[in-house]
Design a protein that fits this description.
The complex is a heterodimer of chains A (457) and B (32). Chain A is an alpha/beta fold and 457 residues long. Helices cover 39% and strands 16% of the residues of chain A. In chain A, helix 1 packs across helix 3, helix 2 packs across helix 3 (59-74) and helix 4 (132-144) packs parallel to helix 5 (165-182). The longest helix of chain A is centred in the last third of the chain and has 23 residues, at 434-456. The two termini of chain A are 29 Å apart. Chain B is an alpha+beta fold. Chain B contains 1 helix and 1 strand. Classes of the chains: A alpha/beta (457), B alpha+beta (32). Strand 3 (21-24) of chain A pairs antiparallel with strand 1 of chain B.
Chain lengths: 457, 32
């Protein structure tokens, strides 16, 4: 399977199953589009007719181009076959080891963001803070259930995790002792709204956190419209100086300024550029996922605007990079030569199997977006996974799980998509969130175009 | 005339043999 598209004056051809990427001229682009449908003679005649005003395109040139395409096909770089579907990927019977936990250290929050999927941090339940004992047991759980995996991840999440900072500190200290005993390498991350950041927290975060996610929606009026304090005031002016101080102390590395865009700001490129102009260079901006009747929900009419914004963002990034004023965007950071293997590309994020969320009480859920929905409770950190039916359902969440994805060129980039988005959009973790698919495909096209542009320099 | 340029990418077919270690979607780095 291949995918062809034109973007920013580049003709790009992707080969789905080998991962190969080609840039081609107009003639090759046209020939590739006809290659499987027409005979060689038909292609030659069609091209001679189309390019009759171009004296450089002769019969010999066209045949030479067809020969190049045949060679790429022979070498498995174009029109390659799907050898993975029938490969021995017996996902349901494979043994999975847990390598990541999302620790919900605080089911409470000091902000009252209107669009919060966690319902103001409480996850549709009671306010709660995780105790040190529960957190310690969760760390023991991952140490004992991660097999030979050396690299383990623990995300401090909420709600607002800094509302339970003393426990976070003690858990990191405990984990550092345990990693020597178990021969593990813990990578901690923290997702925060920033309100409680102070010098002590900056020192701790920059010493212990592999990455930190800082929530900012962009322009002041956009951010303050939906991210308000409990008393109803905007939070922009409070967090910006704190974020700047933290990022500067972090030497500008290993963080994300992470925003959410909604129907209110489908011109979100302005928000991304606002972040960049504030001096932040590692950026992320995500579409809101919510019930369709919410006033800020994205609409079908928004879709072409959002796609155009992604394209304009890619072009702006190339421009700024050439001016030595570049920034990164989460979804455009493809690593073409050392990216994920085919197993990872098929299996995706590992929610419910390799990655679990832990509530303040020690209950286990497939991921942070399922917490609070009792039917997805997998078990707890004391007894392990007891709901094997749900676990097995998540084992089958992969790039080959959905018939709608069978002919999709992007399936080995999205791995079948986000199970939580699928569930919230369709009522099934094996459903297809088509709106999300459209956005992801556009982002992949843009990300690859940027790589092509880098190669042309 | 060179009409097709191929950008260097990880060969997914070859990763069948060495992949799957689990030590590590789009911007991910392989840690095998």
């Amino acid at each position: 399977m291949i995918h062809q598209y034109k973007l920013n004056n580049y003709n790009i051809v992707l080969d789905t199953y080998s991962g190969a990427i080609h840039t081609v001229d107009d003639l090759a682009y046209d020939i590739i589009s006809l290659y499987k449908e027409k005979t060689e003679e038909e292609i030659v005649n069609l091209m001679l007719k189309k390019y009759k005003n171009d004296s450089t395109i002769t019969r010999e040139e066209i045949i030479s181009c067809i020969e190049d395409i045949k060679e790429l096909e022979k070498n498995g770089k174009l029109f390659s076959k799907d050898i993975y579907e029938n490969y021995a990927f017996d996902f349901k019977n494979r043994k999975t080891e847990i390598k990541a936990l999302c620790l919900h250290v605080a089911h409470t929050c000091n902000l009252n963001c209107e669009y919060c999927f966690a319902s103001q941090g409480k996850y549709h339940g009671e306010r709660a803070l995780m105790s040190y004992e529960v957190g310690k047991h969760a760390l023991d759980f991952i140490n004992e259930n991660s097999g030979n995996r050396h690299n383990l991840e623990v995300d401090f999440f909420g709600g607002e995790p800094l509302m339970n900072f003393e426990v976070v500190k003690k858990l990191v200290e405990y984990a550092r002792k345990q990693e020597k005993i178990y021969n593990k390498n813990f990578r901690f991350t923290l997702t925060t709204n920033g309100l409680l950041i102070n010098d002590e927290i900056i020192d701790f975060v920059n010493k212990e956190m592999s990455n930190v996610v800082l929530s900012l929606d962009g322009r002041k009026e956009v951010h303050d419209h939906l991210r308000k304090t409990i008393t109803g005031e905007g939070s922009y002016d409070i967090i910006i100086p704190k974020f700047k101080k933290l990022v500067e102390a972090r030497k500008g590395k290993n963080y994300y300024i992470r925003g959410t865009f909604t129907h209110n700001n489908v011109d979100f490129l302005k928000d991304i550029l606002h972040m960049a102009d504030l001096g932040f260079k590692e950026l992320s901006m995500e579409p809101v996922v919510c019930a369709p009747n919410e006033p800020y929900a994205l609409t079908e009419q928004d879709l072409p605007i959002i796609k155009e914004q992604y394209e304009l963002l890619a072009k702006e990034m190339i421009k700024r990079d050439s001016e030595n004023n570049g920034f990164t965007f989460y979804h455009y950071m493809l690593d073409l030569t050392h990216g994920p293997c085919i197993y990872k590309r098929i299996s995706g994020c590992g929610s419910g199997t390799e990655y679990l969320a832990v509530t303040p009480w020690g209950d286990l859920y497939p991921c942070h977006q399922f917490v609070g929905d009792e039917k997805f409770k997998l078990g707890d950190i004391y007894n392990g996974i007891t709901n094997t039916k749900i676990r097995d359902e998540f084992k089958l969440c992969n790039a080959y799980a959905r018939p709608e994805c069978k002919d999709c060129w992007a399936k080995l980039y999205c791995s079948g998509g986000c199970a939580a988005n699928s569930y919230h959009a369709t009522g099934s973790v094996l459903g297809t969130y088509k709106y999300g698919c459209e956005l992801l495909k556009k982002r992949i096209e843009c990300a690859i175009m940027i790589k092509v542009a880098e190669n042309k320099v | 005339m060179k009409r097709i340029s191929t950008i260097e990418t990880r060969d997914l077919n070859k990763s069948l043999k060495v992949g799957g270690c689990g030590e590590c979607v789009t911007n991910q780095k392989c840690e095998n």
